[in-house]
């Protein structure tokens, strides 16, 4: 149930926004949330004033709610700056009027100025310092005005005033809980997006060099600790320069993307693949013997050879790969040694005519 409430709140806060990673998205969510809270409070006051037969105050609440909806709409249709600025103006007016003239300052209703200050710090960017500090200053001054004037609630009994204090406490807690939650979950999603960007190769969608080498370190360490076999393989597209020269760089990119996709689809779930650089890739196969690795890589070689890559002019580009393989050995203490060995295997495969595998076993070379 808690999850479905959270999902509904998330959906509400996301209305009007794509799941993007723009700078302002977090602020937009907080602005959305603030308007929703503001409209809900206006609705509540409308009910209270109607029950208490206070038509003028009820009309004010209605107008407040209408302006709140206008602000919400500004946010949805992209007038973010207007929405951003209108909110604190509304909130400051609402808190001042209700605190001074209705609830009385004994109710502590003016503590809601704290939420205005928090809003300013979350929503305004560094280049909007001027607005931010003005709003903060006005909120602080009005808070002290309320505190010093000490007006009594005109229409409230002392019991009702206590109820307002509890309402202020709960309202502020809810406000802070949601705003902090919004900021934190936004930070988390931006973080994971940045990590994906930092670890992915843009063209092929595979792990980039940094990520695949980090995987290599971890898999190598696990293999050493568990005394298991593991195989590193380096894959290189054959005559790729010729492909670029004949069909153009764009066609070359297309070939890289297609070959990467097919290679990623034929490796096993436990294997890791990444772009080492240019038209070179690394495949790491943990807990795998050389014979098993050969089967996987031969399947890959065949799948690439069978691949039909057509240019936009309908010309089929023939593409093959050469593969060097090397397995962990008792004498090896660094993963770079297996990689260097696999690279020797690749060199042999190229020298022997390309479109083939070459297993390198002799670390003495
Ligand atoms: N289109 C495209 N080309 C790239 C990219 N990265 C590297 N290249 C090209 O890949 C080519 C690699 O050429 P070489 O290293 O001579 O290798 P090769 O032509 O594949 O020859 P062999 O490896 O000996 O079969 C160079 O022309 C690079 O410009 C890329 O991201 N996109």
Automatic annotation (TrEMBL):
Name of the molecule in the record: diguanylate cyclase
Protein EC: 2.7.7.65
Origin superkingdom: Bacteria
Residue ranges crossing the lipid bilayer per the database entry: 33-51, 57-76, 133-151, 163-184
Domain GGDEF: 228-362
Pfam families: GGDEF (PF00990)
Keywords associated with the record: Membrane, Transmembrane, Transmembrane helix
UniProt cross-references to PANTHER family, sorted A to Z: DIGUANYLATE CYCLASE DGCM-RELATED (PTHR45138:SF9), REGULATORY COMPONENTS OF SENSORY TRANSDUCTION SYSTEM (PTHR45138)
Species: Marinomonas rhizomae
Swiss-Prot/TrEMBL catalytic activity: 2 GTP = 3',3'-c-di-GMP + 2 diphosphate
Alphabetized GO MF terms: diguanylate cyclase activity
């Amino acid at each position: 149930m808690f999850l479905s409430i959270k999902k509904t709140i998330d959906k509400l806060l996301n209305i009007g926004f794509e799941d993007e990673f723009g700078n302002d998205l977090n602020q937009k969510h907080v602005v959305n949330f603030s308007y929703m809270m503001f409209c809900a409070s206006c609705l509540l006051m409308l009910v209270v004033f109607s029950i208490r037969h206070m038509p003028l105050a009820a009309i004010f609440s209605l107008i407040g709610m209408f302006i709140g909806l206008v602000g919400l709409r500004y946010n949805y249709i992209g007038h973010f700056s207007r929405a951003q600025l209108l909110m604190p103006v509304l909130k400051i007016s609402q808190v001042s009027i209700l605190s001074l003239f209705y609830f009385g300052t004994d109710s502590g209703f003016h503590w809601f100025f704290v939420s205005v200050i928090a809003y300013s710090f979350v929503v305004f960017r560094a280049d909007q310092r001027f607005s931010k500090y003005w709003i903060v200053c006005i909120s602080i001054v009005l808070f002290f005005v309320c505190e010093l004037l000490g007006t009594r609630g005109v229409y409230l009994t002392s019991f009702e005033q206590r109820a307002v204090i509890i309402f202020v406490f709960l309202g502020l807690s809810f406000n802070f809980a949601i705003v902090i939650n919004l900021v934190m979950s936004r930070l988390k999603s931006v973080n994971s997006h940045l990590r994906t960007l930092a670890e992915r190769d843009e063209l092929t969608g595979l792990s980039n060099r940094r990520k695949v080498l980090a995987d290599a370190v971890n898999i190598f360490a696990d293999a050493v600790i568990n005394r298991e076999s593991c195989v590193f393989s380096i894959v290189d597209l054959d005559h790729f320069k010729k492909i670029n020269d004949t069909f153009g760089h764009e066609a070359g990119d297309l070939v890289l993307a297609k070959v990467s996709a097919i290679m990623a689809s034929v490796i096993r779930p436990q294997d890791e693949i990444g772009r080492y650089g240019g038209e070179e890739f690394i495949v790491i196969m943990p807990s795998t013997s050389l014979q098993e690795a050969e089967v996987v890589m031969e399947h890959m070689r065949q799948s690439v050879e069978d691949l039909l890559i057509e240019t936009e002019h309908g010309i089929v580009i023939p593409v093959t790969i050469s593969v060097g393989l090397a397995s962990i050995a008792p004498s090896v203490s660094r993963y770079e040694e297996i990689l260097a060995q696999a690279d020797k295997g690749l060199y042999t495969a190229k020298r022997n005519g390309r479109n083939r595998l070459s297993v390198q076993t002799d670390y003495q070379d």
